[in-house]
Write a structure and sequence with these properties.
Helices cover about 40% and strands about 15% of the residues. It has about 400 residues and is α+β, with helices and mostly antiparallel strands. Among the domains are: about 90 residues, no CATH class; about 150 residues, no CATH class. Strands 1, 2, 3, 4, 5, 6 and 11 form a seven-stranded mixed sheet that branches. The chain has a two-stranded antiparallel ribbon with strand order 7-8. The protein has a two-stranded antiparallel sheet with strand order 9-10. The chain starts with 9 loop residues before the first strand and ends in an 11-residue tail after the last helix. The structure holds iron/sulfur cluster.
């Protein structure tokens, strides 16, 4: 988990989705990090396509041969995909984990799909003026409770932001990237999220997906004077499914950010309510081992999670309580801390029909968020190239448990 310099927890749509799916999975993924998990092919595939599309418009070397034809461009994808099994060192000096192929020809099949997606993308976008588009557009917004001054930051990347129906002149050089969007006072902004998976998108599900509400909130602050439209783009065939967002969704999003942020800060990590959520969980074995230990000790699993990764102002300050190996807890690293957690279970439980001070404060905050007394602002300067040389690491460090993007 990240915090801003002024101590705000940095939230994102994927972080909130993981938390809402299962608090324990959030704890494993963002706090405990028990073991390195193998890379998922579908995620790697989506990540690589995103990086190809980013490179198409970003053009660090505009003279490169890959921009001369759709075939050259698609062949670059082919070369990169061939090397996907490599395990180069990450920024932290560790080797990337191996890929977990589901069957012998999965790599070959994805190669064919990716080659075609890149070839078609090149042709579809060959005449899009650089000035009218922004790609992988980073945003970070501060959302603050007006009365208490407390709040959170929301960050994300918009895959594609395109200016339509504007009188701005079209800039055709890579250095013009996004120029018309920044200068325009007319036209419409079209916000696009790429989807690289096979699964058809359910329109009703798209209409309630919070990712677009996050984009809407960001674009409202960044380019408030322009109307905007939203769509999912299937990168395999270029088709788009439109969706819309408005003030109602933005209000719900603000409430969601405060609710989830507060629960995380209070170290509440509820277990998933259904085994159907557990079936595909990457931490299933780890979770079973943790719960087994909790029941042996007579501790609620959440207390054990808290004891292992206690947060101080939202940051983890102590090493894990557990040594993990192949999904199992093989040793306890700090018996004293475990004993403290065990003593927690002896605490008297006090039930009351009356709200505690903390609960009253929580209710007041909820009412304030609902009434719209929330300050939102862009957090700091927007870097001209937010991804810079590290853009590949943004693509390659996507949340490994969020599978919906590429599945
Ligand atoms: S196995 Fe189930 S309860 Fe455990 S972390 Fe995964 S989803 Fe949550």
């Amino acid at each position: 988990m990240r915090h801003t310099k002024d101590g705000r927890l940095v939230m994102s749509d994927s972080l909130m989705k993981v938390y809402q799916d299962c608090g324990a999975r959030f704890w494993f993924n963002y706090l405990e990090n028990p073991e390195e998990l193998p890379r998922i092919p579908a995620l790697e595939f989506g990540t690589m396509l995103h990086s190809m599309f980013y490179d198409f418009f970003k053009r660090k070397n505009p003279e490169a041969k890959m921009y001369e034809s759709a075939t050259n461009y698609a062949n670059v994808f082919r070369g990169r995909w061939f090397g996907i099994d490599n395990q180069p060192k990450t920024e932290r000096g560790k080797r990337k984990p191996p890929i977990l192929w589901r069957n012998a020809d999965e790599k070959e099949k994805l190669l064919g799909s990716g080659y075609k997606a890149c070839f078609d993308f090149f042709q579809r976008n060959a005449n899009v003026p650089f000035s009218h588009i922004l790609v992988e557009h980073y945003f970070i917004i501060n959302i603050t409770n007006e009365r208490t001054g407390r709040g959170y930051a929301l960050q994300g990347y918009i895959d594609r932001l395109e200016l339509k129906n504007s009188t701005q002149p079209a800039g055709l050089n890579p250095e013009d990237l996004g120029k018309a969007i920044r200068a325009s006072r007319d036209g419409t902004l079209h916000v696009v999220d790429y989807k690289s998976g096979y699964k058809p998108i359910n329109k009703a599900a798209l209409d309630v997906d919070t990712q677009f509400s996050c984009y809407d909130l960001a674009v409202e602050l960044l380019y408030s004077f322009m109307p905007r439209t939203f769509a999912i783009e299937h990168v395999r065939d270029g088709s788009q499914i439109p969706t819309s967002r408005g003030e109602g969704e933005r209000r719900v999003l603000r409430e969601r950010i405060f609710k989830i942020g507060r629960s995380i800060e209070r170290e509440q990590f509820p277990l998933a309510s259904s085994m159907y959520k557990c079936n595909d969980c990457s931490y299933l074995r780890h979770c079973r081992s943790l719960q087994h230990l909790a029941y042996q000790k007579g501790i609620f699993p959440e207390d054990l999670m808290r004891a292992s990764s206690p947060l101080t102002r939202g940051n983890r300050k102590q090493r894990s309580l557990f040594e993990w190996k192949e999904g199992e807890i093989v040793a306890i690293t700090d018996e004293k801390r475990l004993a403290r957690a065990e003593r927690q279970r002896l605490k008297p439980v006090q039930l009351s029909f009356f709200s505690s001070g903390e609960e009253i404060e929580e209710e007041e905050e909820e009412a304030l968020v609902a009434s719209g007394k929330i300050i939102e602002e862009i957090a700091g300067e927007m870097p001209s190239d937010p991804l810079g040389d590290q853009h590949s690491s943004r693509f390659l460090n996507e949340d490994a448990t969020v599978l919906e993007d590429a599945s």
